[in-house]
Amino acid sequence: MYLAELLAGALAIGCVYSLVALGFAMIMRATSIIHFAQGELLMLGSMSGLSTLWLLPKLPAVAVLICGMVASGILAVAMEFLVYRPLRLRRVALMNVITATVGMSILCINAARLLWGSEPLRYPELFSTSAYRIAGVPVSPQLVWIMAFGVVLMGLLQLFLKRTRTGLVMQAVAQDAEVAQLMGANLTRMMLYTFAIAGMMAGAAGVMFGSLFFSFFEMGFLLGIKGFVAATLGGLGSLAGAMLGGILFGLIETFSAVYVSSAYKDAIGMVLLIAILLFLPSGLVGLWKARG
Amino acid sequence: MLFDRRRFMQVGAAAAAGTLLPLWARGQGSGPIKVGAFGPMSGNAAAQGQSLRQGVEMAAKAKNAAGGLLGRPIELVIGDDAGKPEEAGVIARRLATRDNVCIALGSVSSPASLAAAQVFREEQVPQIVVSGTAQRITTQGNEWVFRCTIPDRKFVADLVDFINEKFPRLKRFGFIYVNDDFGKGGFDSFIEAGKKYGISVVAGESYTRGDVDFTAQLTKMRAANVEAIVDWSRYTEGALIQRQLRQHNMSDLPRFGSDGIAPPAFLELAGEAANGVMYATHFSPATAADNPVAVKWIEAFRSEFGKLPDYVHAQGYDAMNVTIQAIERAKSIDRTAIRDALRKTDYQSVRGPFKFDAKGDPTLVSHVVRIVNMKETNARLMKP
Q: Is A222 within the bounds of a domain?
């Protein structure tokens, strides 16, 4: 009985990690950048969703989610267009671009502190508060909805990448930019699309996380790191791996807190990161490919 | 750092002034009575520092308006320790020597209070710690230190007494706490104080500061079949814990907490989930109704500042009044005479009857409040 509740909690937070990890993986694939401001895109999406709720308190949950996604998407595109792209055009070393993403992250944190203050902010209840009963087991509606949103978003992303022309071009660019460009793909536009989608995923994760807990100007740091661990766990650059990695990381984190120690929850996650990098550098996907 | 000649002269001159000035200052017999008040006037805990200052100032102003102390006006010397022990040490030295105060009131945090206490002990200046709750402030044989707030262990023991009085059937507790000095101190003291009533902690779960997801801890508590839950957190984590207890349908259990959740921000973050939670607190307008001194003071405070006083206001106000009475008893501003007079304190404070025990701790009893309809109410008036 407690297992069901734990599972629901772990899967919901896992979905949040998956969405952040997806952003990392998409940007990694297309540009080889490790985008350290991904956590801050999450935070800004969360804050934007909350601010829309302050203006329009009656807004349904889906609309709040979309607002957060749009805001983070626009911000991510702005980052690419104003900072990363000019850097790439000047043929700056990759390491320096990655350093710029760290700078971007610090900039976002400070801007958020100025705009929204340094105290945690409460999200109003987005979902009904009485527990749902699934097969006789009471489960919090928030957890159910967050899982549902997460799965739908990831499904839509897969459909977009596999079934639309733009999606296929993006995949082609990610695999081999030069060849794709020779075939007529517009690289600049595809990069913008990549950042837009990565930003939207982070924004959605931000609204979900905010409604579960709260919004806080520093929330992006640890969540960004955890998303990165999830992406590494899946195998950096693999989309399926990122989704799987996020869910798995959520499960590991929650269950290790129950069966090992709750005081060292975050430490266990970081030990995991080091272990993956040491023993399984290409992640789950690498493992699967090696067997196949 | 290299000293050139000019810098050497500057430092030398400053040092000479530092040693000679107090001699000159001590020669003054009449004039204002100098009382030091210090705390974090800037930095993270600045709000509490300001509360300390307002509380102390309010009491001093009232006394000055009524003709002063021993016929002389009280002059407050305010110091800012920024909540840091190293700063507190410097401020204490300055108050003791340059400002030549006859007594010092402060600080808010325990580390800063302790650092200052070492200096005041050396300089032989009586000190009343306003808000530092760490046990060791008064357990180091320092006869110059007094304290205006209930120390940690007594605070927890008071909550345990309350639980035993109002909920005598609760024996199996789940205890969740932040993994630092504050949380661990609360956890250890609770186990210690619970022993005599047969109260045991069957699930003691900790977390790291900044954690947001307490699913694992709460699930373990439920699996241990706890009858009640105690949470020793600060308000951010405390609010999340109350909300998640509700999400997991555990909010029907009696829930207790620490004064870490007393700031109003707790209610803002927790919302409706805060209802029903009971916690020990140093002062609350909700528990002051049967104390006429407190009722009068809260009214005066409200008309002066346009808001309700918090617990540091109350402690600062009490510290200043205890000082005034001690100086009146001593009929002198001699530091040793004031210290000895403080030992004989018998004062009706805004938090109840107030005396110092042999260690210098107050003989107050903690207040316990219960959140009902998003407001603090006096939990001691509950029926058992």
A: no
Instruction: Give the range of the structural domain holding residue A190, as residue numbers without chain letter.
Output: 2-217
pLDDT digits (tens, 9 = 90+) for B307-365: 999 999 999 999 999 999 999 999 999 999 999 999 999 999 999 999 999 999 999 99
- One-letter amino acid for residue A191 of the chain: M
**What class does CATH assign to B153-281?**
alpha beta
Location of each CATH 3.40.50.2300 domain in chain B: 32-150+293-354, 153-281
Q: Within chain A, where are the H helices?
A: 2-31, 38-55, 61-79, 85-89, 94-116, 141-163, 165-175, 177-182, 187-212, 219-234, 239-259, 265-279, 283-291
pLDDT in tens, A180-191: 999 999 999 999
Q: Where does residue A67 rank: exposed (0-12), middle (13-18), buried (19+ CB within 10 A)? A: buried
Per the structure, the count of domains in chain A is 1
Nearest CB neighbour to B240, from listed A119, A138, A213? A213
Model confidence at B30: pLDDT above 80 = no
Nearest to B268 among A5, A122, A143 (CB): A122
CATH 3.40.50.2300 fits B32-150+293-354, yes or no: yes
Nearest CA in chain A to B222: A2
Assigned token pair, A102: 């760290």
Give B42 to chain A, closest Cα distance, Å: 16
Cα–Cα distance, A26 to A23 (Å, whole number): 5
B265 touching A (Cβ < 8 Å)? yes
CB pairs under 8 A between A and B: 68
Give the residue from B202, B287, B273, B206 showing the smallest Cα distance to B242: B273
Q: Of B242, B244, B284, B292, nearest to B264 (Cα)?
A: B284
Q: What is the ipTM of this complex?
A: 0.85
Which residues of chain A make contact with B220, given a CB cutoff of 8 A? 258, 262
Minimum-distance CB partner of A131 among B210, B240, B249: B249
Alpha-carbon span B276 to B317, nearest angstrom: 30
pLDDT in tens, A205-245: 999 999 989 999 999 999 999 999 999 988 887 889 999 99
